[in-house]
């Protein structure tokens, strides 16, 4: 029976994790890139491991590898197809080399809030996207919301023109790159594990992320301030591979999927509270948050508006309309 691994260092992780599974149990590695204890993905991953390790004790054993300790952004999807890891929860913004359709989740200001995003994922169109990459061998088990995103930089960003000429780290998403360019700034795609160092050394001037990532990875400590732009969604695809799922006995597979559904539901119910807590944690830690008034917010919306048109063909108008109307 595996214990959930929350804060172990690399090196110790592999041996400790392996040591906790009983002989005969199918070992399932869940790798992700986030850290800390208060992050929604950390909590959901650990909940999933705990549930499986209790309810499928003797049959299956989940080991959680947080903070890119097993695989980081660049390798994890290939590793899943190779069978080196069985579960991932990457951001929907990291699937550009497999599908353009996920760009819908990245369109700036398409979701008013997390509830609108959840409604979209539960719609016919959203559910359809869950297994958009079936041909590749990926199976979507559920969408885990992370939060809305906020810009931070080494200077206050009150209006989009304040970002002119700055370099922003982005995930590997064409939509995100276009959005940064629309602000007159320059996008620098980079793995999540490298962001703190890049901000600290000035390789980039800013980044965009959720309260939970900005707090748990301490980005606020190496930035002037964070602006409450709410400009984009961050959500994850909790996923496995077809090959792994097919390798399970029917009863185990059924229970595994049922637990995934439960944990997904629970994670999405709790996500807003977790984000609010991490926003407060940033303030308690001395971080500065710039709150926008309606006129300022409108300027951000207008600056990013042209991005939708650029991706209309690649994503599909129907999908965009469904998401925007959620
Ligand atoms: C990022 O790369 O900024 C995020 O996708 C990290 C994460 O998984 O929350």
UniProtKB/TrEMBL annotation:
It holds the Pfam family DctP. Residues 1-17 form the signal peptide. Keywords: Signal, Transport. Gene3D superfamilies: Bacterial extracellular solute-binding protein, family 7. CDD domains: PBP2_TRAP_SBP_like_1. The keyword Transport applies. NCBIfam families: dctP, TRAP_S1. Belongs to the bacterial solute-binding protein 7 family. This is TRAP transporter substrate-binding protein. It comes from Reinekea marina.
